[in-house]
Amino acid sequence: MASRVVVFDYGSGNLRSAQRAMERTGADVTVTSDPHAALDADGLLVPGVGAFSACMTSLRAAGGDRIIGRRVAGGRPVLGICVGMQVLFDRGVESADPGAGAEAEVTGGCGEWPGTVDRLRAPIVPHMGWNTVRPPEDTRLFAGIGPRERFYFVHSYAVREWEFTSANERIPAPKVTWSEHGEPFVAAVENGPLWATQFHPEKSGDAGARVLANWVDTL
């Protein structure tokens, strides 16, 4: 039977693009905000576009933070995409006008990983376009994908420092993939049932399709 994937609809994200891309992997895909469907699915995909604070407000209103937490605690796979990855961290720090010294807005995230999402320090922001990534050697998310393949990014904020390492020898350390735009930033994470990408696999051609297929293969 095909794996059942729910694309979680909490009012943010390219839902139909994500749905079509997931369907091309052979998964049975539903777009819904229903919490029971989201909890029961083989895999939960959490999209996200726009501001961290707005996404977290919508995600909490839909109960998405609790759903993600319950799934991860139960070892049930979750995949976050773009801001859907960012909200998995402790906090996001955003400023409407960083050049003018505006006061930053700090928003709490889901807290699945320690760390802060803040503005990229680069000559040109947002980071918009195609870029390579540097996955670890034992990656499953990027299995079968060559080092020259590029992925599509659209973001001004990212996690610039990885703060979490496994403190238990029975639990493998997270596998962190990096990219660079002005400075290194976290491009993807594989951590038990919780995986995420800063780039948009649904907009990344054949390489992105392979990333999604690799995730579905784990369900």
Automatic annotation (TrEMBL):
It comes from the Bacteria. Pathway: Amino-acid biosynthesis; L-histidine biosynthesis; L-histidine from 5-phospho-alpha-D-ribose 1-diphosphate: step 5/9. Its EC number is 4.3.2.10, 3.5.1.2. Its main location: cytoplasm. InterPro entries: Class_I_gatase-like (IPR029062), GATASE (IPR017926), Imidazole-glycPsynth_HisH (IPR010139). It holds the Pfam family GATase. It is found in: Cytoplasm. One of its GO terms (biological process) is L-histidine biosynthetic process. One of its GO terms (cellular component) is cytoplasm. Residues 6-215 form the Glutamine amidotransferase domain. Keywords: Amino-acid biosynthesis, Cytoplasm, Glutamine amidotransferase, Glycosyltransferase, Histidine biosynthesis, Hydrolase, Lyase, Transferase. GO terms for molecular function: glutaminase activity; imidazoleglycerol-phosphate synthase activity; lyase activity. It catalyses: L-glutamine + H2O = L-glutamate + NH4(+); 5-[(5-phospho-1-deoxy-D-ribulos-1-ylimino)methylamino]-1-(5-phospho-beta-D-ribosyl)imidazole-4-carboxamide + L-glutamine = D-erythro-1-(imidazol-4-yl)glycerol 3-phosphate + 5-amino-1-(5-phospho-beta-D-ribosyl)imidazole-4-carboxamide + L-glutamate + H(+). NCBIfam families: IMP_synth_hisH (TIGR01855). Heterodimer of HisH and HisF. IGPS catalyzes the conversion of PRFAR and glutamine to IGP, AICAR and glutamate. The HisH subunit catalyzes the hydrolysis of glutamine to glutamate and ammonia as part of the synthesis of IGP and AICAR. The resulting ammonia molecule is channeled to the active site of HisF. This is Imidazole glycerol phosphate synthase subunit HisH. It comes from Nocardiopsis sinuspersici. The gene is hisH.
